Amino acid sequence: MEVTEHRVAVKQCTCGQENKGEFSQHVTQPVQYGPEVKAQAVYLNQYQMIPLERVSETFEALYGQRLAEGTIVEACQAAAERVASVNQAVKKYFTKLADVVHFDETGLRIEGKLHWLHVACTSLLTYYEVNAKRGQEAIDTIGILPGFGGTAVHDVWKPYLAYDKAQYGLCNEHHLRELEFIGERYPHDWVKKFGDLLMEIKTAVDFAKLPCIV
Question: Where does the chain have alpha helices with state H?
């Protein structure tokens, strides 16, 4: 942990007027953490999904300085405000311009209550939004799929089929999971062959997308 001390000069003019220097715009408190510490805290908590208490323990173990949980929360809120315009731009792109977008949702708990983390993504961009609901009410609130006119790839969960403007593509990863379940529960020769065929098709498509070298 590196500590930097900032000082400003205070001088008094011969006329009696006192003149003070100014701190950098980033220095707002008598003692504060810098952007690198805050960025690491946000990364560990938001991206690596490490709970607040364990993030504090991690800083103490690595740097000998235990962060207060409130400091971590404040850093996350500040980061959220800074990326809000980017998130809205991604959301607008998905709704108006993207040709293919993948949709899914997974459960997570907030203050002990079940919520749903909804995701819309392409190979380059990802949009997350948490909602207390899982179905059509949440999808309408998020507002991407209702106005989306491209191909929506999903797992055939019924609420996704309520939007007539979009075309639909089915997620083969979910197909493979279902085939694996069927193969374990009701063994049939065709199950493995079907799964292998899907993987062969994916390999062929990936190969066809490679740039042609003459």
Answer: 35-42, 52-63, 69-96, 136-142, 172-185, 189-208
Question: Residues in the chain with pLDDT < 70?
Answer: 213-214
Element (H, E) at 114: strand 113-121
Do both 130 and 178 map to the same domain?
Answer: no
Domain span holding position 73: 32-87
Q: Mark whether 184 and 132 lie in a shared domain.
A: no
Q: Which residue has the tokens 């190979």?
A: 123
The reported pTM is: 0.77
Token output for 8: 């400003």
Show Cβ contacts of residue 128 under 8 Å, excluding neighbours closer than 6 positions.
Answer: 117, 118, 119
| 213 falls within a domain | no
Is 71 found in the same domain as 39?
A: yes
Q: What is the pLDDT of residue 79?
A: 96
